[in-house]
């Protein structure tokens, strides 16, 4: 049941801390802070390429996974929408790895991509939340997200659990390949293990996000901006807002604004920016300042170190716990999902069962 929550989605949003902790404990030993990967169907040291394939939010998790694996393990990675992979016909190297990401393990397009990648000689690893699913059965190996059953149609806790698995895999690959120094591994695993507590702190008081939701609920169009690993989270924010509140939203890479979308900037189009401090902060902040200078209303998620610079031009600044930039996409996923939830509740849409959508899309 929903317990004391109004919707399954609200309950599942509040399960983020527990699910993140449970999932991370499967792959990281809290005492030694070392990543302990399960047996994999390919050797991360020798693998020439990784091809991710997934749909919807799971595809966005895969995109974050690509940034992580490239950054710490230096393996070339592709990430495709499953329904596109089949028709793109990419050249696949002998012994390459295919990673399928799916909550249900039953999504028709992802399953079709799995079969195609397998036929083309790829070693298939699925990241799924359902151990007995079709994808788990048809893969050479499976790693599980420990999210528990997800009832709300919009993926919430399964999404952050996917991120937790992919971050662990990236660190494990980096360790195996020697591209991640032991001290760096310890620092990043420690940062990951702190995420559940930060997530809990963030969920304790969502009054600022509720205030933001009241403004967003008035809008007809909304832009979400992010850079680097926060770019797929901007896409996640836009996807969740669309599917739950039926407000038109787009996610963009912050640096891409000036190549077209900046023409949309208008006081009626709120700009939700994901802009934590870190190596990309100045770049993103300057893109936001350009949007503000053209009348854009900037609503930014950042941390204490990023807040003063953004307050100079942003209408609202929501300060999240300070974390290592490596884990920032996990932490930022939670407020954008919360925002979409609150906007949908304000608009009175069916949060757990949005129109036209199904929990598992088993048709192509
Ligand atoms: C969005 C959402 C969907 C799913 C997509 C893939 O909130 O839930 O985009 O992520 O349909 O589903 P799975 O992960 O079951 O393959």
From TrEMBL:
Active site residues of this protein:
359
Could you say which residues form the signal peptide?
Answer: none
Q: Does the keyword Lipoprotein apply?
A: no
The keyword Cytoplasm is annotated on this UniProt entry: yes
Location(s), subcellular: Cytoplasm
Major site of localization recorded for this protein:
cytoplasm
Which Gene Ontology molecular-function terms are recorded? carbohydrate derivative binding; glutamine-fructose-6-phosphate transaminase (isomerizing) activity
SIS domain: residues covered? 37-179, 212-354
What catalytic activity is recorded?
D-fructose 6-phosphate + L-glutamine = D-glucosamine 6-phosphate + L-glutamate
Q: EC number(s) for this protein?
A: 2.6.1.16
Q: Which GO terms describe its cellular component?
A: cytosol
BP GO terms, sorted? amino sugar biosynthetic process; carbohydrate metabolic process; fructose 6-phosphate metabolic process; protein N-linked glycosylation; UDP-N-acetylglucosamine metabolic process
**Primary enzyme class:** transferase
> What keywords sit in the KW lines?
Aminotransferase, Cytoplasm, Glutamine amidotransferase, Repeat, Transferase
Identify the domain of life.
Bacteria
- What does the annotation say about its assembly with partners? Homodimer.
Q: What does this protein do?
A: Catalyzes the first step in hexosamine metabolism, converting fructose-6P into glucosamine-6P using glutamine as a nitrogen source.
What is the name listed in the Swiss-Prot or TrEMBL entry for this protein? Glutamine--fructose-6-phosphate aminotransferase [isomerizing]
What is the organism field in this record?
Teichococcus rhizosphaerae
- Lineage of the organism: Bacteria, Pseudomonadati, Pseudomonadota, Alphaproteobacteria, Acetobacterales
């Amino acid at each position: 049941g929903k317990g004391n929550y109004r919707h399954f989605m609200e309950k599942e949003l509040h399960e983020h801390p527990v699910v993140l902790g449970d999932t991370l404990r499967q792959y990281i030993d809290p005492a030694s802070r070392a990543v302990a990967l399960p047996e994999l169907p390919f050797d991360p040291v020798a693998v020439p390429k990784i091809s991710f394939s997934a749909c919807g939010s799971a595809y966005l998790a895969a995109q974050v996974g690509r940034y992580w694996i490239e950054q710490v393990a230096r393996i070339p990675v592709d990430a495709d929408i499953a329904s596109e992979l089949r028709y793109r016909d990419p050249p696949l190297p002998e012994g390459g790895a295919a990673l399928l990401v799916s909550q249900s393990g039953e999504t028709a397009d992802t399953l079709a991509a799995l079969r195609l990648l397998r036929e083309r000689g790829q070693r298939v690893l699925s990241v799924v939340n359902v151990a007995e699913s079709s994808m788990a059965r048809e893969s050479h190996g499976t790693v599980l997200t420990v999210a528990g059953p997800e009832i709300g149609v919009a993926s919430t806790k399964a999404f952050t659990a996917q991120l937790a698995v992919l971050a662990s895999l990236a660190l494990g690959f980096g360790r195996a390949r020697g591209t991640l120094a032991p001290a760096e591994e310890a620092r990043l695993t420690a940062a990951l293990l702190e995420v559940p507590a930060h997530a809990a702190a963030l969920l304790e008081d969502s009054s600022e996000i509720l205030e933001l939701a009241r403004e967003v609920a008035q809008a007809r169009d909304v832009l979400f901006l992010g850079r680097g690993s926060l770019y797929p989270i901007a896409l996640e924010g836009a996807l969740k807002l669309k599917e739950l509140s039926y407000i038109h939203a787009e996610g963009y890479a912050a640096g891409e604004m000036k190549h077209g979308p900046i023409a949309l900037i208008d006081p009626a189009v709120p700009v939700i920016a994901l802009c934590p401090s870190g190596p990309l902060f100045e770049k993103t902040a300057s893109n936001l300042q350009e949007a503000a200078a053209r009348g854009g209303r900037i609503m930014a998620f950042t941390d204490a170190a990023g807040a003063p610079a953004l307050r100079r031009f942003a209408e609202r600044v929501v300060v999240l716990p300070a974390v290592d930039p490596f884990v920032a996409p996990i932490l930022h996923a939670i407020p954008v999902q919360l925002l979409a939830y609150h906007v949908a509740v304000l608009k009175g849409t069916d949060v757990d069962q949005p129109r036209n959508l199904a929990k598992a899309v088993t048709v192509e």
